[in-house]
């Protein structure tokens, strides 16, 4: 439990807008960062240079059985790394760790040191075996994020990682040399236009829990309702962003409760009652029950979100499509983006380009053509 | 339906003074007064009286008095007369209750809890009657640094500068559209702005073509959600282009100019068919987020060849500081903030009286936030809502404004009495009406003179106050909270305002 | 988290690094009234600088090559002192707000367009050989827009007309929700050419808040897909003449057979009131 704090002293919620991009090779082949980076550069005007980031899947095949922790340490808190190292040694087997290499010539302001650790859980006898490995990792990550000043975990999934910071996305990519050093079969990217004051690298996106990452554009008017509901299930927001709420809701419904996105989209972006009235009886019952049961998780207000985890990437917009999304396909590649032009900038020859209606997910899954399902009502 | 409503005003006629000249009958657009020829008597039906005092002012013998009707329900602190009357009105109509002007509820007016400073001994006060005292203000984005080329004794500027617009006094007329107000009132504001060297604001109703050449350079033209009257010539004729996101009287909602007010010339100016409702959507449908706002800002800069500052006007709402920061980062040159007491020609009363935050707090929060982020110089701030006198202007500037918008004050100068019935279109003073019989009561020559007088009087008072502080240029007051102290405020309020308590 | 960010100041994503006309001159070639601009990697202001330069140098037909996502193409062409309208050919993917505030010129897109095509357009013509995104023809008040394929949300939102200036929007495919929302004037034609036999248009809330203008719809819609403010009418002769004219133009732009399109049944959607909200308020 989090100590009781008066609502008065909680930080102001960060509101923001941005550009999103995601690309997946549904055959599972790994590819470099050029597409994601150049697509974001094409949409430069959607961000304001105060945040950019990337999530990559299939990143560390040589360590695929270990949780890969990307942890940032602020330079003005020199003790943080020591504390984290001690904490990790206590709770994990660390099989390998190193500083994430960076481009010394890159122009970014105030970068922290970012380190990666490949770990497996080390349980103390008194902790018992009640927690799954995943829950164990989530708990320890929360501990680092909330208890160790100057340290923050960017990502903690297996065979994936998040790179992010303050700057335009292409600057962040240049800093971490993403185009030269890494390959993956899913890349998602985010360019931020916060209306709040970041300047803190941990506040950039993607936001991640385990191997789930979320990039999000928009502002949830229902934030307070969503947040308070999620708190009942043990999710305490520390960043006060809509993205965080979205990520926790995805974690609750999809990872913990096991609902597929095709159902979850009916919760986040529930159809209007008068549309539900006109559905076939079985669908009507489903959507009515979803709305009734999960009303506090209706994500009200403009949003587009691209969520990824292993084997799956999906995009979803709010129910009246107040934020843009374009999907496209070329061979084994599936793209999701805020703008069609940014896809064409990196993949001039597309087989298909389409825009689904609000609330209808575009789901790319490994070795399937599930994304075609979103074509039926698309334009 | 038989109405249960009580009359709002009582009309009292002193028969010993009444000469039955019937001026009151002609002046009242609500049919309160009438003359009975058979009885040779003047009668009054007070139920439609709105308390605008037109008849009182025009009665040649001072025979009339109009005051709040003494008839009352049993007094009840919770169920006030106003609440009861509203309930009955809605029971009779099933409608949304409309009102006009600004929020009249007793929220704290922070201007009245701030006091100004003056020089005593340690530095001299200045006499503005005989010494220079400068109010000129440049509105627009300022550079981080100026790049210059020194060539012998010639220095030339090499940086590319953003467009800036000067005003001779930091007082601008708020957005009031042609359609909401009469053509005469609209022209009066334009004439006064031109004569005094300041700006008026077209609101979202367009700028009549015949006014563009003469008054364009004193116009802030709005591009609002309805896009009424927005064409490339309109944008290019202006001094400043303003994107209207919201308005203090009705944050978050749109507006309807009812079709019966959309007469030929208004239809032409708004560029819509005659007689149709002019619906202003709640949002601008090309702006659903901050990056969309930046898209429209730059669309307008493109449409005006980067020659005009672009202003963004928002209502002061809970997270106004963060929003303002986003607006500046999105490329706006001016941020206009309209607070809780901002006026309107028509707004649902539920919205007007309950949504938004006071301008004083909003202004201080925005100014502080922009400074913390190092971007305060990237925009000018215009504060609006409930600026009633020159001291309010001075306090607003000390809290961080570059200039203020005045709406209600300007209307009062022209004749308005804040009867709050603007939405009926029956303004007896000829301001908020499209009825030619009523609007021709307002003579633009005279009304603009009243406005110029007001600006002159206020400007002079501002100079006196500045002089007292030992300041002879308005820019030295901007954000200068050392010249403010709070009286009767709580700690959190002083914190938000960024001022010390008196004596601290 | 309390990090001072004053040092970050303001990043210029729109105008940062914009090159001067002199630096970009090689991108522009003008021969008589023809001009060509290589837009590869130019930002929107640079393109519009070059277009304006070309227009002021007398070019009347400007071809833009390698356009990919740049916004506001054609917006900076309010040139009252200049005679003659300009025709711009865009290859291939213009960015948002294509032809926003367009002052009477003609733009042809050889590819798909994004959001905001013809936003608050005053006059002129836009032809898109592909699809378009959301809010096509928003607040448009004059001129014509022809979209070969489908359009996104809120097309024709708040379109208006006045004193004989009547905007026209013709869409070959279908549209998404809130089609014709708030319409106050103008003529909108939705052809549904890409719908399968028996397939209804997908949009909901068609014509919600509509209080002027007319929508002609080819293809089926269920009554619940329509906004409360619209009525469905059969066509009269005047309607048929109108359709004949604009569908004919549409067909000529895209090499289609107008007659076979016009053979199918159309319905007309009109607002039931010029004052849909007259009774909402208590006076």
From TrEMBL, chain A:
Top-rank taxon, per record: Bacteria
SUPFAM superfamilies cross-referenced by the UniProt entry: N-terminal nucleophile aminohydrolases (Ntn hydrolases)
Occurrences of domain Glutamine amidotransferase type-2 (ranges): 18-366
Active site: 18 (for gatase activity)
Pfam families, A to Z: GATase_2
Protein name per its UniProtKB record: Glutamate synthase domain-containing protein 1
From TrEMBL, chain B:
E.C. number: 1.4.1.13
Keyword list, A-Z: 4Fe-4S, Amino-acid biosynthesis, Glutamate biosynthesis, Iron, Iron-sulfur, Metal-binding, Oxidoreductase
Coiled coil: none
Residues holding [4Fe-4S] cluster 1: 18, 21, 24, 59
GO molecular function terms attached to this record: 4 iron, 4 sulfur cluster binding; glutamate synthase (NADPH) activity; metal ion binding
Record-annotated 4Fe-4S ferredoxin-type domain positions: 9-38, 40-69
Catalytic activity: 2 L-glutamate + NADP(+) = L-glutamine + 2-oxoglutarate + NADPH + H(+)
Positions contributing to [4Fe-4S] cluster 2 binding: 28, 49, 52, 55
Family as reported in the entry's similarity comment: Belongs to the glutamate synthase family.
Protein name from the UniProt record: glutamate synthase (NADPH)
Species assigned in the record: Desulfofundulus australicus DSM 11792
UniProtKB/TrEMBL annotation, chain C:
Pfam families per UniProt: GXGXG
CDD domains: arch_gltB (cd00981)
Glutamate synthase alpha subunit C-terminal domain boundaries: 64-220
GO MF entries: oxidoreductase activity
InterPro entries: Archaeal_gltB (IPR035710), Glu_synth_asu_C (IPR002489), Glu_synth_asu_C_sf (IPR036485), Glu_synth_lsu_3 (IPR012061)
UniProt name for this protein: Glutamate synthase (NADPH) GltB3 subunit
